[in-house]
Design a protein that fits this description.
147 residues, alpha+beta, Alpha-D-Glucose-1,6-Bisphosphate, Chain A, domain 4, 5-stranded antiparallel sheet, 5 strands, 47% helix, 27% strand
Length: 147
C-alpha cells in the first residue's frame, strides 16, 4: 500500500511539474481534436488547414506527423508559430482507427503575452481546427461523388 501511495504521489508531482513547465513557456497555448478518418486523410486536411489559414509552412514531415508554420500577427508586433502534431489513434498502422490533431500557437520570443493576446492565440488554434474539419468534410463529399 505504501508503494502505491508513493507512486501516486510521484505521479502527482510529475503532473504538477508538467503544468508549471507549460505555463512558463512564452506565449503558448494548445488545442486538440480527435477525428475518425484515417491518418492519411487527416494529414492532408491538416496541411490544407495551414494553407487556408494563410500561414506559411516552414516544415512538414508526414513520417513524424509534424507541421510547423508561421503566420504574421502585426497587431501583436510579431509572428505566430503554429506547431501541429498529427498522431494516429492507434500505434498499429494496419488499423485505420483515426487520428488526433494538436495545434499550439505561440508568439516569437520577446513578445509579451497578455490576456488579449492569449485569447487571440486560442482563436487562431480554434480557427485552424475548424479549417481542418472543413477540409475533412470536403474530402468526405468528394469520396461520395467519386467512389
Amino acid at each position: 500500500m505504501k508503494a502505491l501511495c508513493r507512486s501516486l504521489f510521484a505521479a502527482s508531482l510529475m503532473v504538477i511539474a508538467c503544468f508549471a513547465g507549460g505555463c512558463a513557456t512564452t506565449g503558448s497555448t494548445g488545442s486538440m481534436q480527435m477525428f475518425t478518418e484515417t491518418f492519411d486523410l487527416v494529414w492532408n486536411a491538416a496541411l490544407a488547414g495551414v494553407d487556408a489559414l494563410g500561414a506559411q509552412r516552414k516544415f512538414a514531415s508526414r513520417s513524424s506527423g509534424t507541421i510547423v508554420a508561421l503566420m504574421p500577427l502585426p497587431e501583436a508586433g510579431g509572428a505566430v508559430t503554429l506547431s501541429i502534431d498529427v498522431r494516429r489513434a492507434s500505434t498499429d498502422p494496419s488499423l485505420n482507427a483515426g487520428a488526433d490533431v494538436q495545434v499550439r500557437a505561440r508568439m516569437e520570443q520577446g513578445v509579451e503575452l497578455d490576456e488579449e493576446l492569449s485569447a487571440e492565440l486560442r482563436r487562431i488554434e480554434d480557427e485552424y481546427l475548424e479549417l481542418v474539419t472543413e477540409a475533412l468534410s470536403a474530402s468526405r463529399r468528394n469520396r461520395r461523388r467519386f467512389p
